Each structure stands twice: as structure tokens, then as C-alpha cells.
């Protein structure tokens, strides 16, 4: 389960969902939104987040399986809309060692250049 010490405070992503913090939204539906990362690590760097607050990958329940699948379908749609025809990377960080900085599940969609491997 989540080990976020600030779990009682709304995350920046929750503030975006609530309309308290602006975001450059590129996609939204009843289950999720997608927006440009404010600290891009590639020419295209979009975050896809569920409206349901799920802190980490470890907090995904069996009831969330369809939602998580939907996040990846949206990631694919966003990549297509952004013209990432030559490929892209999806990333989900989990926990401190995984470099998760916002404890609200999110899929990074990175592209627009050749990405290196290994990533870490």
C-alpha cells in the first residue's frame, strides 16, 4: 500500500481534477484526464491520470482493472493525436525508489525523440 507521508493532503493531480490548479489538458472523459507535464522529460510528455485517486500501482484493486486498461487506451489515443507515429514510451513510477513524486497513479507518455535504454 501507499507510503506517501502527505497522503492526507490533496495531491497536485487532485487539485488539477478539482479545477484548483490549471493544466494544459489534451484529453478528458468520465474516467480520466491527460495533460502536458510541466517538467517535460521529452519533447512530448503527457500524463494520463484516473479521476479516481489511486496512490500507487500497489494500491490498484481488482475493481480497478478496467480503469487501468482504459488509462493505457487513452495513452495510445493521446500518442496518436500528438503524432508519435515513430513510437513512444509509457512509464508508471511506483514508490520512492521508483521515483514516484506524486502519489496519484499516472501514466507518463514520452516521445518526440529517440529514447535511450536502459532508462534508469
Give an overview of the whole structure.
It is a single chain. Helices cover 19% and strands 21% of the residues. The protein has 120 residues and is an alpha+beta fold. The radius of gyration is 14 Å and the shape is globular. The mean pLDDT is 94. GO terms for molecular function: catalytic activity.
In the sheet with the most strands, the strands line up as: 1-2-3-5-4
Q: What is the count of β-strands?
A: 5
Gyration radius, in Å: 14 Å
Per DSSP, the total helix count is 2
> How many separate structural domains?
1
Q: What number is the mean pLDDT?
A: 94
Structure in a nutshell:
The chain contains two helices and five strands, in the order αβββαββ. The chain has 120 residues and is of the alpha+beta class. It has one domain (12-111): 2-Layer Sandwich (HIT family, subunit A), CATH 3.30.428.10.
Task: Please give a handful of descriptors for the protein shown.
single chain; 120 residues; alpha+beta; HIT family, subunit A; five-stranded antiparallel beta sheet; 2 helices; 21% strand; globular
Secondary-structure blueprint of this entry?
Blueprint: H1 12-17, E1 25-28, E2 32-36, E3 44-50, H2 65-81, E4 88-91, E5 107-111
Antiparallel strand pairs: 1-2, 2-3, 3-5, 4-5
Amino acid at each position: 500500500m501507499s507510503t506517501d507521508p502527505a497522503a492526507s493532503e490533496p495531491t497536485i493531480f487532485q487539485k488539477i481534477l478539482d479545477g484548483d490548479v490549471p493544466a494544459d489538458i489534451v484529453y478528458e472523459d468520465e474516467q480520466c484526464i491527460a495533460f502536458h507535464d510541466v517538467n517535460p522529460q521529452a519533447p512530448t510528455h503527457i500524463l494520463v491520470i484516473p479521476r479516481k485517486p489511486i496512490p500507487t500501482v500497489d494500491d490498484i484493486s481488482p475493481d480497478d482493472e478496467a480503469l487501468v486498461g482504459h488509462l493505457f487506451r487513452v495513452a495510445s489515443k493521446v500518442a496518436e493525436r500528438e503524432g508519435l507515429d515513430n513510437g513512444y514510451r509509457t512509464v508508471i513510477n511506483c514508490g520512492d525508489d521508483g521515483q514516484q513524486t506524486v502519489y496519484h497513479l499516472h501514466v507518463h507518455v514520452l516521445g518526440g525523440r529517440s529514447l535511450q535504454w536502459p532508462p534508469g
